[in-house]
Design brief:
single chain; elongated
Length: about 725
């Protein structure tokens, strides 16, 4: 028989002693009784409804960006053609330089996405948006487990705040949303491990942490964030309980951070510009950046894609006000820690997560700006959580009507943030809108001017592009890429002489700029300045010896100078690098024909046609040789006619093609067709006032009239 409990032993008969605030959370931990009850149970139906509403709100707010096109470096992140195979996926994981940064999980995600929807942007945007919504849901779950008041308010602010738009609407920033899900997932699981001490939870947290590092290195701040959380909860840290289990995570994070720093240094070297800052100037940048990010969180106006780059000068007194303000804020939070640890914890989480982007080591974006909205995607949680917890505690202390008013204010705040995010996401509908908006808000942004010019060139609007490239070089005269692209755009507008000047300027600024030298060589060659063009091509080959086009262009200018043998060597070198280089086969065929090596010429033309059958100029060249070759064993009137007819079908009534077709008809014995076709070619040549073609056609017509095919002179 079961023993009955004595009434004196029940919980209602004797009041349990109250634990000290540091043990139960209380005012130091910024917890509230309602939060404690939520942390220990499953989600209630109303909580599921709140989370579903949050996901729906995120989808709605980002609707303007659903169909936004690729911008800036999206094409470097969306899987490039050479990485779209299974071998490419292997390279993503096991070849460090295969991608822009070594984030193999991120690029594997892009690889899978490209397999699913190719270059259709909707899929990429929806994945980013849904990952952001998932991150917001996980924010709510993490804060709920920690019994932080205002957990759902913090999650909603994180989800709807306009400062997050850059991370969500920009396809490249899948690295932010994906790594955030792993970061928050690892934190949630590690908190479970901290409670249960089961090794399976630790292994799971470690796995999620590694996946986060393979998506973006900012995940490396997780161990430090967990230590801040444990200090906030308990008031002190235990070496054995709190620090030792996190040491492997710290080591992994440091290794990942060093690898990313190496990539950033390499990118900066490729950019041709160095970020030269003294330690004092780096502290000035860090202090100002912290103040900047705080200001954008509390007053999110004038958010732009590219912010102005500050002129940092350690001799200007007012620039010290920013780090001084951060120091004073930190002192205030430290002094307050005995009454409420929340402000110091929030500040530590904010600054600690931001630390990799504060300027103490160089990042490639520092070449054009020291700050960017996407840098504070995760870091913003420290401030958002602190503000939401403070608001929730304040509301709970109010009376009935005060609480109702507080809830109304919170809903109003979320509505305003959602509206601002919806408007901000409209910037990302296309690349032209993005850069024009950026220039409107930051008129001295040379990079936006340059990128807008590149976008306009891609759309064939060369006149408009030249205006923006000119503006870029006016703002930044030493911008080699802008001079180079201005030269290219001017060439497309027929202003070759002016283009040569800007291309020479680009080469003077960056002598190792092989693309600029290649463009300069082409511009010089188009003006008949073959020797100068050859010099540029040879200089470019010293920097980039694996560029098949450079060998081809060098071969072309050597051919124009009558140096047939060296030209053939250059074309052959181009084909060794690119065996499928059609233009090189075409050029090689012409050179062999010039030397009377007709069999070799025909072989080159046929190989080119096997690679791409519908090339009218190759068809025409091959047909001409088959119809007019002085070697009787090589001539073939039927094949020549077939090729010439196909060239005419593709190219239309062009005198050169009609001349070839007439010669093919004559070789096939179809002299009436040859005469009619040649006379049509003569008529067109006379309309074009092409004296050389007219004289040549008259001579060939005379042959066709007496029943003789035209034949080239025999080789010497």
């Amino acid at each position: 028989m079961a023993r009955r409990h004595s009434p004196s032993k029940t919980a209602t008969s004797k009041k349990l002693p109250r634990q000290p605030p540091d043990r139960q959370g209380g005012r130091h931990g910024c917890n509230q009784p309602a939060g404690q009850t939520l942390a220990g149970r499953r989600l209630a139906p109303w909580e599921w409804l709140l989370l579903a509403a949050l996901v729906g709100a995120v989808l709605l707010v980002y609707q303007p960006a659903w169909h936004g096109g690729f911008i800036w470096d999206d094409d470097a992140h969306v899987t490039r053609p050479e990485l779209r195979s299974w071998q490419g996926l292997y390279r993503i994981w096991f070849e460090l330089a295969a991608t822009q940064q070594y984030y193999p999980l991120l690029h594997s995600a892009f690889w899978v996405e490209h397999k699913l929807w190719g270059d259709a942007v909707l899929g990429y945007h929806l994945v980013n948006i849904l990952l952001h919504a998932a991150a917001a849901v996980m924010v709510a779950l993490v804060l709920r487990r920690l019994a932080v008041p205002g957990a759902y308010l913090a999650a909603a602010i994180f989800a709807l705040h306009p400062v997050q738009v850059e991370s969500v609407a920009w396809i490249t920033e899948l690295k932010n949303t994906l790594s955030a899900v792993f970061y928050l997932g690892a934190m949630l699981v590690y908190l479970r491990f901290d409670q249960t001490r089961h090794r399976s939870w630790y292994a799971c947290a470690m796995g999620l942490f590694v996946l986060g590092l393979l998506s973006k290195t900012v995940t490396a701040t997780l161990p430090a964030a967990l230590l801040v959380v444990f200090w906030w909860q308990r008031g002190r840290l235990s070496w054995r309980r709190d620090v030792v289990p996190l040491i492997p995570l710290f080591l992994l994070g440091v290794a990942a951070g060093q690898l990313t720093a190496w990539f950033e240094r390499m990118m900066i070297e490729l950019g041709g510009v160095q970020v030269r800052l003294t330690m004092v100037e780096r502290c000035l940048v860090a202090g100002r950046a912290i103040c900047f990010y705080l200001a954008k969180l509390f007053w999110p106006t004038n958010l732009i894609f590219l912010y102005p780059r500050w002129n940092v000068d350690q001799n200007v007194w007012w620039q010290y006000l920013f780090p001084a303000g951060v120091v004073l804020l930190s002192i205030a939070a430290w002094k307050l820690r005995r009454r409420w640890r929340g402000p110091l914890a929030g500040l530590l989480l904010f600054v600690g997560t931001l630390f990799p982007a504060l300027g103490f080591h160089d990042l490639f974006p520092f070449l054009y700006s020291f700050v960017a909205d996407h840098f504070q995607y995760l870091a913003s949680l420290g401030v958002i959580t602190l503000a939401s917890a403070g608001a929730a505690l304040l509301i709970e202390r109010c009376g009935r009507w005060g609480r109702a008013g507080g809830y109304a204010l919170c809903l109003t705040l979320l509505a305003v943030l959602g509206a601002l995010s919806w408007r901000q996401s409209q910037m990302y509908v296309d690349v032209e809108t993005l850069y024009r908006t950026t220039i409107d808000r930051n008129p001295q942004c040379w990079l936006a001017c340059y990128n807008l010019g590149v976008a306009l060139v891609g759309r064939g609007r060369f006149d408009e592009a030249t205006a923006w490239f000119r503006r870029a070089v006016e703002i930044r005269p030493q911008y080699a890429e802008a001079h180079r692209n201005l030269g290219l755009a001017l060439r497309m507008c027929g202003k070759t002489d002016e283009a040569i000047g800007h291309l020479q300027r680009a080469v003077a600024i960056r002598p190792d700029d092989a693309p600029a030298r290649k463009s300069l060589g082409k511009a010089l060659a188009s003006r008949g300045r073959y020797e100068e063009a050859a010099v540029q091509y040879r200089q470019a080959l010293r920097t980039n010896p694996a560029d098949a086009e450079l060998y081809y262009f060098l071969g072309s200018v050597l051919r124009a100078q009558g140096q047939t043998g060296p030209a053939i060597a250059q074309y052959q070198q181009a084909l060794e690098i690119r065996p499928d280089y059609i233009d090189a086969y075409d050029g090689l065929g012409g050179l062999f024909a010039d030397r009377g090596e007709f069999k070799e010429a025909i072989r080159c033309y046929r190989k080119s046609l096997r690679l791409r059958p519908d090339q009218p100029h190759i068809l025409n060249n091959l047909a001409w040789l088959l119809a007019t070759c002085p070697l009787a064993a090589v001539r073939d009137g039927a094949e020549a006619t077939a090729h010439a007819q196909r060239a005419k079908q593709l190219w239309g009534d062009v005198p050169e093609v009609l001349d070839t077709l007439a010669a093919a008809y004559a070789e096939a014995g179809r002299f009436p067709d040859a005469l009619a076709t040649a006379r049509r070619a003569l008529e067109l040549a006379q309309r074009q006032n092409n004296r050389a073609s007219v004289d040549a056609l008259k001579g060939r017509i005379a042959l066709y009239e007496v029943g003789k095919p035209y034949c080239l002179a025999p080789p010497k």
